[in-house]
Design brief:
The chain is α/β, with parallel strands linked by helices. The strands form two sheets. The chain has a six-stranded mixed β-sheet, sandwiched between helices. Strands 2-1-4-5 form a four-stranded antiparallel β-sheet, covered by helices on one side. Strand 9 and strand 10 form a beta hairpin. It is globular, with a radius of gyration of 18 Å. The chain binds adenosine-5'-triphosphate.
């Protein structure tokens, strides 16, 4: 694996008296896919928010290529290349798939969303969006209105919108959530196709996805790191089994 891109040292976030993320040391290397797992309420989403800049830590640091970014807001981190998958809410349903991707590229370039009507006429942005969709194997749905996509296709569109800005790090928070079996398989194949090209942090409850995709599995429980290692080592780790049994009794 490559060099360390994104790192935390002792990162902590409190909500009232609760340490939602509690002194976590973590690193993501170039080209690596790390899955972050843990029982419900373990602190996974809070941890992603600390990496994306949606939340600031109460203690500890977040560094990107050695630079302390702990206090940088989300847009500044996005400009450095830390992208979080868009939420379905940010898809414009009346626009086509390719127009949505072009809009994401336009927003990143610093233009205002108010000019969205012009985006259809923006040939370079549109070409970039077309190329992105072709690269991801999504050309088939380029001209369909986003409103006509299935739930699974919308999740793929969200990721395409995050990738069009050519990020260094992609943060994916539960991309399989709410997908049927066939759609989940397609999502796994899709993410497998991104592996090695981007550095990816994947938060996911779907253990088939985690153990198929991850180079490394990082386990959180009650805000703290329980294990960090290759998937098969982590799966067999009694501390991990215990963390799950002590939580909501989910299957590992
Ligand atoms: N904004 C907030 N205010 C207060 N408590 C919060 C807030 N966000 C999260 N928490 C608490 O912090 C803990 C960790 O929550 P978080 O959502 O990060 O866990 P998670 O591992 O992502 O859970 P899940 O798997 O259920 O999505 C939980 O106890 C949660 O109730």
């Amino acid at each position: 694996m490559g060099k360390t891109l994104l790192q935390t040292a002792g990162v902590t976030r409190r909500f009232g008296g609760l340490n939602a993320v509690d002194g976590v040391d973590f690193e993501l290397r170039t080209g690596e896919l790390v899955a972050v797992i843990g029982p419900n309420g373990a602190g996974k989403t809070t941890f992603v928010n600390l990496l994306s800049g949606a939340l600031r830590p109460d203690a500890g640091t977040v560094t990107f290529e050695g630079r302390d970014i702990s206090r940088l807001p989300m847009d500044a981190r996005a400009r450095l290349g830390i992208a979080r998958s868009f939420q379905i809410a940010s898809i414009f349903p009346e626009l086509s798939v390719v127009e949505n991707v072009a809009l994401a590229a336009q927003a990143h370039a610093g233009h205002s969303f108010h000019f969205w009507r012009e985006v259809a006429d923006e040939a370079p942005l549109r070409r970039k969006a077309q190329a992105q969709l072709a690269d991801l194997g999504l050309s088939d749905c380029a001209d369909r209105p986003a409103s006509q996509l299935s739930h699974g296709e919308k999740r793929l569109l969200e990721i395409a919108m995050a990738l069009v800005v050519e990020p260094r790090v992609l943060l994916l928070d539960e991309p399989m959530a709410g997908l049927g079996i066939a759609e989940a398989r397609r999502m796994i194949d899709f993410i497998a196709g991104l592996k090695g090209r981007f550095s990816i942090l994947l938060v996911e409850h779907d253990m088939e996805a985690v153990f198929t995709l991850a180079d490394r599995v990082f386990v959180l429980a009650s805000g703290a790191r329980v294990a960090d290692g290759p998937p098969e080592v982590v799966r067999a780790d009694p501390r991990v089994q215990l963390a799950y049994l002590g939580g909501e009794g989910e299957d590992l």
